[in-house]
């Protein structure tokens, strides 16, 4: 478990990139290449991406065929996926096929969304999940220390990274001791956490 964190990357230092369809922007927090370093080899292998999208208007999403997506909006929205509407409450992870015809069909206010993307067929596919937790509460998992030889049950729930919803949107990782500086995250601050589940 962990409820202590350190800053891994400052959101303010990153540059937004336009969506392929030009209807929004996204900031890449973790690239597929970097995810290999963040994924502990004793837990599992695989490549994944994490980003924070800005949702400014209703309309179609850029298709991402061959990708599994978990979309976590900071405010309530509605997505229509292959013709089926889905009302998604605030801070509720929603999984769907990136290749599906997907549109943002209700956007009561401009907001952001955390996106986890895993290539279908990759060794990480189906093994990563997203949960929203209070920064002041212990979270199952926590860093990569002390897991050599761990069995699959012990590996489940291992935390990789989290997005701090304290207004900064910084990327944080579990504090593992040593000389690392603690990130002060008050209770009541939500974290969008990426964990390994199998």
From TrEMBL:
<dbReference type="InterPro" id="IPR010282">
    <property type="entry name" value="Uncharacterised_HutD/Ves"/>
</dbReference>
<dbReference type="InterPro" id="IPR011051">
    <property type="entry name" value="RmlC_Cupin_sf"/>
</dbReference>
<protein>
    <recommendedName>
        <fullName>HutD family protein</fullName>
    </recommendedName>
</protein>
<dbReference type="InterPro" id="IPR014710">
    <property type="entry name" value="RmlC-like_jellyroll"/>
</dbReference>
<dbReference type="Pfam" id="PF05962">
    <property type="entry name" value="HutD"/>
</dbReference>
């Amino acid at each position: 478990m962990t409820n202590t964190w350190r800053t891994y990357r400052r959101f303010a230092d990153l540059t937004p990139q336009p969506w392929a369809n030009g209807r929004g922007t996204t900031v890449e927090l973790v690239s597929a290449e970097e995810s290999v370093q963040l994924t502990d080899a004793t837990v599992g292998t695989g490549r994944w991406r994490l980003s924070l999208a800005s949702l400014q208007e209703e309309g179609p999403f850029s298709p991402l065929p061959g990708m599994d997506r978990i979309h976590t909006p900071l405010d309530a929205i509605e997505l229509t996926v292959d013709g089926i509407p889905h009302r998604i409450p605030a801070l509720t992870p929603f999984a769907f096929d990136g290749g599906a015809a997907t549109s943002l069909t209700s956007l009561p206010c401009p907001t952001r969304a955390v996106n986890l993307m895993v290539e279908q067929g990759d060794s990480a596919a189906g093994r990563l999940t997203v949960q929203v937790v209070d920064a002041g509460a212990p979270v199952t998992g926590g860093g990569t220390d002390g897991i050599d030889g761990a069995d699959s049950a012990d590996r489940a729930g291992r935390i990789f990274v989290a997005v701090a919803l304290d207004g900064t949107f910084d990327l944080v990782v579990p504090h593992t001791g040593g000389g690392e500086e603690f990130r002060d995250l008050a209770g009541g601050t939500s974290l969008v956490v990426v964990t390994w589940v199998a």
